[in-house]
């Protein structure tokens, strides 16, 4: 009862507006939930845009480690961008419901091109996770595991903090600049001290095929660094799945 009253007080002080049509009273109104859908993302190499497939092209393959990318929407879409902004930077977890419904509806188009894979998040640094209160890539990986009925494991750890790639201009982003940013999670090969609550997200050895999940793909430097770490440790195929992709 007290929490309900508290929520009513918060809503009166900070009224919600629909992400789509800006109608007051809800974050995602019934009209937008039934009529709105983002413009389709054109298939092409995730790094250079060439070709008509979501696989990495032959030109980019020589300097990258990611095999391809599934994308829900363009980061330039104002509705998608605002939803991600409120989710990450304002930490409005009520956006979860909206994003989850989008991913469920888009699941057939986002299906990775291979079977018998596992999902893994591109993790935040532990300090950023602590300050934000959650890791959005981990949440997305859990959603995908539930939707596609595939396991989810924390395969990687981030070794240092970096500035947000989504906030950097295209001119200063470079593929390969974040190499060495990730390491294999020590718990992948050491489950003896596994906490019971984390058991379901740990694995005794690396799988052959991994789908990396993150909220936004900009230059691809972050995800490619994660893919490099996995492949250098024996993973054969690494695909990416993101909510939004920025301009190249």
Please characterize this protein's 3D structure.
With 248 residues, the chain is α/β, with parallel strands linked by helices. The protein folds into 2 domains: 1-36, no CATH class; 44-245, no CATH class. 33% of the residues lie in helices and 14% in strands. The strands form 2 sheets. A 4-stranded parallel sheet has the order 1-6-5-2. A two-stranded antiparallel ribbon has the order 3-4. α5 (95-110) packs across α7. The protein is globular, with a radius of gyration of 19 Å.
- Read across the widest sheet, the strand sequence of neighbours is 1-6-5-2
Our count of domains comes out at: 2
Q: Which series of helices and strands comes N to C?
A: HHHEHHEHHEEEHE
Low-confidence stretches: 165-173, 191-198
Class derived from helix and strand content: alpha/beta
Rg over CA atoms, rounded to whole Å, is: 19 Å
Strand content: 5-15%
| Number of helical regions | 8
- Using the alpha-carbon principal axes, give the shape: globular
**What is the typical, i.e. mean, pLDDT?**
85
Question: Whole-Å distance between the termini?
Answer: 49 Å
Largest sheet: 4 strands, parallel
